[in-house]
């Protein structure tokens, strides 16, 4: 196994450049041309936070593993999709990372939330230990649904980002549920917190003339994760057009999934190929430098990204979207409704105004073994996320 990993790691660096094609390249809601915008494509990809296997980090739980090679790939993909949400929240979708350029503090605040140590909000330590509560022992492989559930729980501690995280189960997005979650009151504790929030809110494009208190109570930025199963053993090709459209939406956070037991973070597509960031490279854990500044180059993939045929995608995935404002969410709903009219595109999930009566309410679901909704609970945290309702033609 060690040899296989080593060989795989060394081969990772023989990357192909983008194909010379007239087809547009879509990266997380942005459209590019290979002929005129190759530099912009690569800069956009390099600017995404790239999390890979690491070695020699502090032992998880004090006595556990010091590396996640061989088991942490889906956890790293969960970190990447969530980091993209934090980048959109604190830096904006237009932000770019340029090697050697001094970055703003908010960038390092985002990066520090994922560093491999026990007190980072979304560290591998936090994800692995929170997973124990979901029946996953440390070092066990996660599916897309499990990592989404764990990240949702961890986000409640991240008061700086103040995100509303919603996981749409049963292939159904309930608008009423999301509005209730995002419109919950956000009250300020002290003037310092208010001024920090104010600069964030203004940075995120809110008009300055709206009262701060009003802006803070209107809408918590939404991270929407939708675990799906798009076929039995391989992806049903009827979903491919819909999947492509997800990468075209400005709210796109991409997709986590991959091939069986080998997770990738998909950030776009060109033609019939998905573009992805691959966590299967082991890098040494990063320590802050003498100045307290974090060396960050290893968190940015500085070669052309990997590509694979859409047909090879494992059918078990989670699709992510970020809606910074209520207008973003309303726009997203309109796009999803329009998508249902596209010929040859089978909807991957249903968008409904309110909870169908036969569903339990996930916001009040009691996630304990004595929950009366035991069958649904089991589906939440099953071992390989194989239990989703199969979407059929």
From TrEMBL:
GO molecular function, one term: cysteine-type endopeptidase activity
EC top class named in words: hydrolase
GO cellular component annotations of the record: autophagosome; cytoplasmic vesicle; cytosol; endoplasmic reticulum; mitochondrion
Protein's cellular compartments: Cytoplasm, Cytosol; Cytoplasmic vesicle, Autophagosome; Endoplasmic reticulum; Mitochondrion
Record carries keyword Signal: no
Catalyzed chemical reaction(s): [protein]-C-terminal L-amino acid-glycyl-phosphatidylethanolamide + H2O = [protein]-C-terminal L-amino acid-glycine + a 1,2-diacyl-sn-glycero-3-phosphoethanolamine; [protein]-C-terminal L-amino acid-glycyl-phosphatidylserine + H2O = [protein]-C-terminal L-amino acid-glycine + a 1,2-diacyl-sn-glycero-3-phospho-L-serine
Pfam families for this protein: ATG4_LIR, Peptidase_C54
Enzyme Commission number, as recorded: 3.4.22.-
Domain Peptidase C54 catalytic: 39-335
Main location: cytoplasm
Entry's Gene Ontology BP terms: aggrephagy; autophagosome assembly; mitophagy; piecemeal microautophagy of the nucleus; protein processing; protein transport
Keywords noted in UniProt: Autophagy, Cytoplasm, Cytoplasmic vesicle, Endoplasmic reticulum, Hydrolase, Mitochondrion, Protease, Protein transport, Thiol protease, Transport, Ubl conjugation pathway
Functional summary from the UniProt entry: Cysteine protease that plays a key role in autophagy by mediating both proteolytic activation and delipidation of ATG8 family proteins.
UniProt record similarity statement: Belongs to the peptidase C54 family.
Full protein name: Cysteine protease
Organism whose genome encodes this protein: Erythrocercus mccallii
């Amino acid at each position: 196994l060690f040899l296989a990993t080593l060989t795989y790691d060394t081969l990772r660096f023989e990357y192909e450049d983008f194909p010379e094609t007239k087809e547009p390249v879509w990266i997380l809601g942005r459209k590019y041309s290979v002929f005129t915008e190759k530099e912009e494509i690569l800069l956009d990809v390099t600017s995404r936070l790239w999390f890979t296997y690491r070695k020699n980090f502090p032992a998880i739980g004090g006595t556990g593993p010091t590396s996640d090679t061989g088991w942490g790939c889906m956890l790293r993909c969960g970190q990447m999709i969530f980091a993209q949400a934090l980048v959109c929240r604190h830096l904006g979708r237009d932000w770019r990372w340029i090697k050697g350029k001094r970055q703003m503090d908010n960038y390092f605040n985002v990066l520090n939330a994922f560093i491999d140590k026990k007190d980072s909000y979304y560290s591998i330590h936090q994800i692995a230990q929170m997973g124990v509560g979901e029946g996953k022992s440390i070092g066990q492989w996660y599916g897309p649904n499990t990592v989404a559930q764990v990240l949702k729980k961890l986000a409640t501690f991240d008061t700086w980002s103040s995100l509303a995280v919603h996981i749409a189960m049963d292939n159904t997005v309930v608008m009423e549920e999301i509005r209730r979650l995002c419109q919950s009151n956000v009250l300020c504790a002290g003037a310092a917190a208010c001024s920090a929030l104010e600069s964030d809110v203004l940075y995120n494009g809110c008009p300055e003339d709206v009262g701060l208190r009003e802006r803070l109570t209107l809408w918590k930025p939404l991270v929407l994760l939708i675990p799906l199963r798009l076929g039995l053993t391989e992806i049903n090709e009827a979903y491919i057009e819909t999947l492509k459209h997800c990468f075209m939406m400005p709210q796109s956070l991409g997709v986590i999934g991959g091939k069986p037991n080998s997770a990738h973070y998909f950030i776009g597509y060109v033609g019939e190929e998905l573009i992805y960031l691959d966590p299967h490279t082991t890098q040494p854990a990063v320590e802050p430098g003498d100045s307290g500044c974090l060396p960050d180059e290893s968190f940015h993939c500085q070669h052309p990204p990997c590509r694979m045929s859409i047909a090879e995608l494992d059918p078990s995935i989670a699709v992510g979207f970020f809606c910074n404002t209520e207008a973003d969410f309303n726009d997203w709903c309109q796009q999803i409704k329009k998508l249902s009219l596209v010929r040859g595109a089978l909807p991957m999930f249903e968008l409904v105004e309110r909870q169908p009566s036969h569903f339990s309410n996930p916001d009040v679901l009691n996630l304990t073994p004595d929950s009366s909704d035991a069958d649904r609970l089991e589906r939440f945290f099953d071992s390989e996320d194989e239990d989703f309702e199969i979407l059929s033609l």
